[in-house]
Amino acid sequence: MATIKDVAREAGVSVATVSRVLNNSAAVSESTRAHVREVAARLNYFPNGAARSLSTSRTHVIGVLLPDLFGEFFSEVLRGMDSSVRQAGFHLLVSSSHADAEQLLAALHTMRGRIDGLIVMAPDVDARAAIQATTTDFPLLLIDPGVGVEGCNTISIANYDGAYAVVRHLLGLGHRRIATIMGPLRNIDAQQRLAGYRAALRDAGAPSEPELEIPGDFTEPSGYEGGSRLCALATPVTAVFAANDYMAIGVMGALSDAGIRVPEDVAVAGFDDIAMSRYLNPPLTTVRVDPFRLGERAVGRLLSVDRSAVGKHWHHEVLPTSLVVRGSCGSTWGGRARSGAGPLRGR
Amino acid sequence: MATIKDVAREAGVSVATVSRVLNNSAAVSESTRAHVREVAARLNYFPNGAARSLSTSRTHVIGVLLPDLFGEFFSEVLRGMDSSVRQAGFHLLVSSSHADAEQLLAALHTMRGRIDGLIVMAPDVDARAAIQATTTDFPLLLIDPGVGVEGCNTISIANYDGAYAVVRHLLGLGHRRIATIMGPLRNIDAQQRLAGYRAALRDAGAPSEPELEIPGDFTEPSGYEGGSRLCALATPVTAVFAANDYMAIGVMGALSDAGIRVPEDVAVAGFDDIAMSRYLNPPLTTVRVDPFRLGERAVGRLLSVDRSAVGKHWHHEVLPTSLVVRGSCGSTWGGRARSGAGPLRGR
DNA sequence: CCGGTCTGCGTAATCGTTTTCACGGCTGGG
DNA sequence: CCCAGCCGTGAAAACGATTACGCAGACCGG
Q1: CA distances (Å), A85 to each of A57, A342, B64, B112, in order?
Q2: How large is the average pLDDT for residues A96-125?
Q3: Mean model confidence pLDDT for chain A
C-alpha cells in the first residue's frame, strides 16, 4: 500500500507538500498541486486513518454503546445516527450487548483514541456514573438516562407524557377500570410510563389499584401472560394499557384466545408505534416515538458540542411523543387503517 | 489524558517495560510488573488505539458497508455480527446507505488504516468490482453477492431453494394457478426467488405465465398494489407467492379489502419470516432465513481468513433456508400459531 | 577465574501523518 | 539600490504506541 512518502518520492516533492495538497491546507502552486494529485491517484494513495488520527487527535468516528440490538427500535435509532453522521463525514463505531458496567467500561476503554465523541444508551445507572467519570476528554451524550444526570448532555423520550395522553384518551372514551402491563421495573422507560399511567388515573379521580398493575418484561409472551391474568380478574377491566407494543400484541392474543373481543369488550393500547402495529387486527392504538429522529438528534447534538466546553455546559432535551388513535381502543375502528410513519420496507 | 510516558516516568521505568507489562509480551520481574500495573491503574491509563494501530498495523475493528438499514433484516444481521465480533474483542465500524459505487468507495477509503477486514453487502455489481480491486491489503467478505464472484469469500442465502420449496408446497396443496409478486429486479435476492418460483412451476408441468409475474419493490404498498391487480385478473389465481413478507402483508390487505378470504379463497406465502409474520391473521406461511446467523457467520469467516492468503483461497458459503408452514396457505390453519424463532422483544 | 547463556530492562527506530519553523527567491516601496 | 514581506517549499519534530537490539549483571560449568 502506498504511503505519503511514496507519493512524495514519485512526485519529486516533500511529504509536507503532499499533505498540504491533499488537505488544501496551505498555499501550494497550481502546477505542483495538479502534479501531486495526479501521482496520488496513479499510486491509488489514500491516507492512513490511524496515522492521521495520531497526528491530529481527531478521528472522525463517534462511538455508540448500546445495551442491545433487539427489535426495530434500536435499528431505527442506529439508522438515524448513521444518516446524521455521514453528512458530517463521520463513521459509527458500534458496540452493543453490554450486560453490566464492567463490560461497558471495557468496551469504552478499547475505544480510547479511536473516537471523537460517545453516545451511550445505558439503562444501568452505575455504568453511567462510571462512564461519566472516566470520559473527560471528549463529548458524551446520554440517551434516555432518566433523571438526575447533571454535567452531561442528554436526550430522552417523553414517556410520561405519552403514557398520560393515551390513558387520558381511554378515560375520555368512558373507561374507568383500566389495567396496565408494566415493563421491567429496572428500566427507566418502564418506570416513566407507569408514572404517566398512574398520574392520568389519579387526575381523573380513578386511582390505580395494585391488582391492575400487572408485571411484564416488554416481550410478547409476557404480554400474553398478563392478558391471561386479566381475564381471571374477579372484577373485569374494560381497557388495558400495555407499556409497549410487543406486550400489547400479547395481550390481544390472550384476549382473543379467551373469546374476548377487542375493542368491543376490552380496549387495548400500547406504546412505541412499531411498524406492525397498524397492520394488526384491529390496528393498535399506541404512542408514537420517533427512534430515527432520536438517533439523528443525538448525533447532531454531539457534533455541535464545543470540545473545550465539555463538562461546563450541558442541556437536557426531551423528544416529544404523539398519540396515535387506531381501532384497538374502539374510537375509530373502521377497517384497514394505514396511517403511520412510512411504508413497511426492508431488504 | 495519561500516556505511556507518564506511566513510565511515574513508575520509574522505561516505556518499553510498561508496554511489556500491559501486553504480557516479555519477561518482566514480578515486582516491577505489579508496580507498573498499580501506577497505570492509579493514573487511569489506557493505551491509545490509534497509536497502537499505527505501530502494529492491526486495529481490532472490522468495517461493515451496508446498502441501507431499513427493516429488521439488517438489524438482525448487525446483531449477529456484533455478537460474533465482541467475542473476539473486536468492534464494528458501520457505514450504510450507499446509493452508488462512488459513495461506497468513498466510505471505504476513509476506513483505510482503521480496519482489519471488511464485510460488504452491496447489491450494486459495479461497486463490488471496484471494491474487490481496491482492497488488496485486508480480508474481504461479500454478503449475498449473487453469482460469478471469484477470488473472494462470500456468503449468501438459499433464495432459489427457498422459493422453490414454498412454491412446491403450494403445488402440493393442489394449487395450479400461482402468481408471484416480484421484488425489484436489480436485486439479486429478487432474481433468485423469481427463478426458484419459475423452476418449481416448470418442474410441476405448470409453467408460469407473464401475467402471473407481477412487479413489486419489497415494500408493503407495492404488495397491496400487486394484490389489487391480482383481484382484477380475468382468470383468478388460487395462490400467491410474494417475494418477501412485507409484500405478502400488502397482498393480504388488498385481498381482505376486496372481500377475498385467506386462505379459503386464495393462499398466500411470503419470504423472510420476519417477526410479525406469525402474528398476522392468518399467520403467514413463509420461508425462514436467519439473518442473525448470517451476520455471525460472516464475521466468523472473515476473522478466520489468513491475512497472507488474501486473494489466493476463497470459499462460497450458502446459508440454508427453511419452509415455515402456517395458516395463510390453508394447510394447518387452526387459530393462533405461535411457532417461530424466539419471542418478540425490544427496548 | 573465565567465557557463555539467560534475565530484566533501557535506548532508539519505526509506523504514516500533520505542522512548525526556517530558508531561499521574488516583489515592491522607499 | 536595499530591505521588508510575502510565497512556495523542505527538514524535522511531534503524536503514542511497539519492538529490535544491546547491555549490564547473575549464574553456571569447566
Answers
A1: 19, 22, 15, 18
A2: 85
A3: 89
Q: Closest residue of B to A44, CA-based?
A: B134
Cβ neighbours of A137 in B, within 8 Å: 1
d(CA B193, CA B183): 9
Contact B311, B133 (CB under 8 A): no
Q: What is the pLDDT of residue A333?
A: 46
Record the cell numbers describing residue B293, joined without a space. 446467523
The rounded distance, in Å, linking the Cα atoms of B215 and A27 is 56
Q: Distance of CA A323 to CAs A163, A166, B127, B345, Å?
A: 9, 6, 43, 22
B326 CA to centre of own chain: 24
CA distance B171 to A266: 41
Residue B347 has pLDDT above 80, yes or no: no
B211 backbone φψ class: left, alpha, beta (φ>0; ψ -120 to 50):
alpha
What residues are paired with B323 via a beta bridge?
B287
Count CB-CB contacts under 10 A for residue B198.
Answer: 17
Total beta-carbon pairs less than 8 A apart between chain A and chain B: 211
**CA-to-C1' distance for B5 and C12, Å?**
15
Q: Which residues contact A258 (CB under 8 A, 6 or more apart)?
A: A227, A228, A231
Sheet holding A239-242, edge to edge: A213-214, A178-181, A239-242, A267-269
- The predicted model scores a pTM of 0.88
pLDDT in tens, A192-201: 999 999 999 9
Of B43-57, B159-173, B177-191, B310-324, the least confident: B310-324
Of B135, B241, B261, B122, the C-alpha closest to B186 is B122
> Chain C bases under 7 Å from protein CB?
7-12, 14-20
pLDDT of A334 = 44
Given pLDDT bands bounded at 50, 70 and 90, which one contains residue B314? Answer: confident
Q: Which three cell numbers stand for residue A243?
A: 407499556
How far, in Å, is the CA of B28 from the C1' of nucleotide C8? 6
Do B65 and B98 contact (CB within 8 A), yes or no?
A: yes
- pLDDT tens, residue by residue, A49-58: 999 999 999 9
**How many Å does it take to go from CA B179 to C1' D22?**
79
Residue A262, classed as helix, strand or coil, is: coil
> Any idea what DSSP says for residue B331?
S
Task: Determine the distance in angstroms separating the CA of A94 from the nearest CA of chain B, rounded to an integer.
Answer: 5
CA distance A92 to chain B (A): 5
pLDDT at B337: 43
